[in-house]
Specification:
Elements: H1 6-15, H2 22-43, H3 76-80, E1 86-87, E2 90-91
Antiparallel strand pairs: 1-2
Length: about 100
């Protein structure tokens, strides 16, 4: 199996519109190296290929749902008192996505 390269990490980061520094790129490569080593350990387990994958970890889980009870809501004006910045009934948050399109 091919190893991840610095160029691959940069390419994926560009597609996700996140820029990575050289240090961040190396950190990602180091993490994938650890993941690869752990996968190699798992693949070395005798008979692992015969184990059927688990489709859901809680197959025997029993759901006990509570009754819906209508309760009075907190007035929006009271909730907005906790916000630093809002417009109308919407909370204004810092921009977290770079809208420059890279192609």
């Amino acid at each position: 199996m091919a190893k991840f390269t610095s160029e691959m990490v940069d390419d994926y980061a560009d597609k996700l519109l996140i820029g990575l520094t050289k240090e961040e790129n190396q950190m990602v490569l180091d993490e994938f190296e650890i993941i690869d080593k752990n996968i190699d350990i798992i693949n070395a387990i005798e008979g692992i290929e015969a184990v059927e994958p688990m489709s859901w970890c809680l197959d025997d889980f029993e759901y006990n749902l509570r009754e819906d009870v209508v309760e009075e809501s907190i007035p929006i004006e009271e909730l907005l008192q906790n916000c630093d910045d809002y417009v109308g009934n919407e909370v204004r948050v810092p921009k977290v996505v770079n809208d420059d399109v890279h192609e």
